[in-house]
Amino acid sequence: MSENKTSTVKEPAILQIVPTLNAGGAERSTVEIAAALAREGFTPLAASEGGRMVAELEAAGGEWIRMPVNTKSPLSLYANARRLAQIIQERNIRLVHARSRAPAWSALWATRRTGTPFLTTWHGAYSGENALKRYYNSVMLRGDAVIANSQWTADHIQSVYSVRPKKLVVIPRGIDPAAYDPANVSPDRIARLRAQWNARRDEIVILFPGRLSRRKGQLVLIESLAQISGEFKNLRAVIAGEAARHDDYAAEIERTIERRALTKAVTIAGHVQDMPAAYLASDIVVFTTIEPEGFGRVAAEAAAMERPVIASDLGGTREIVVPGVSGFLVPPGDVGELVDALRRLLVAGVGGRAAMGARGRAYVLANFTLARMTGDTVALYRELLAQHSLG
Questions:
Q1: Which end of the chain offers a freer environment for a tag, N or C, measured as fewer CB atoms within 10 Å?
Q2: pLDDT over 90 (residue 127)
Q3: Residue 345: enclosing H or E segment and its boundaries?
Q4: Rounded to an integer, what distance in angstroms lies between the CA atom of residue 94 and that of residue 72?
Q5: Helix (H, G, I), strand (E, B) or coil at 368
Q6: How far apart are CA 163 and CA 205, in angstroms?
Q7: Where are the domains of the chain?
């Protein structure tokens, strides 16, 4: 793994800054943009505390700069700003792109000191329940441009915040059509996962991907399964995601499964590395968050893998799932509506679910591709760089 280098590079460098490089939309976008930058002749750098995706970043042509940016301490933010300013000057960094609020404050101060263009991506629906919180979040609006990862996110920014960004651009997340292509997943990969999940050949698998977090809403699926399992005997729910540290929510999920007598029908799979195969190993994908997602990556990935999706009618996800065409949208936290949507897909049978899945893939390929996302982002970089050189 690479760490800081002090030699000056010839190619103009772009620095992305994100707290960690573990699983998540911001982290995945960091790697994807690094690969695009390398292809375009830039030097892609990423400042982060690190994580399991560092190897992917480096394989994509990026360089990891170890920095303790996963902190909200004012003293640490200031220290990070000083270090960033030094790195910007030493590494020929022409533009800084922050993907999270705390490191964005450090990046803002460093770029103001060095006169470097600065932009952010608004990845989530940050809560703004009070003035102090809104001020903290507003750092994401104080650069030369803001990327909103959905139209919903852009509307949220404009409706909640009085700070108006200089430039607001909607660039949705993108799915790699080759990585998320049913034709490119071998039967062995599918069979391996179903065996790990203890899913019998005759069982219909309902997959719920996402971190084990109360806001993701895994308990809504469990309660729905408890209501419908008597009617459909061959169901298996798979909850795929890692648990948060120092959080008892995973234990609450397990207790609820036991209380609802679902221990033989629910598998808690933990983190799944091979998500394309996981989608194909399932028959229905559920993503019923109880708080809005900025984009809804799970819905886009599942649809790309030709799986019907049931998702909450919230946030950017409603821009991905077309009700009655590629899946269903249900009110957040509504067990009864989720039961109804599950019943409709179960009654539709293999053929009905396959037709809905095919329509979902066509919709994703028309609107949410990786090439479109990376192309639009790099074009924005070039626009800001040109403006800065003229200024």
A1: C
A2: no
A3: helix 335-367
A4: 26
A5: coil
A6: 46
A7: 13-174+370-390, 182-367
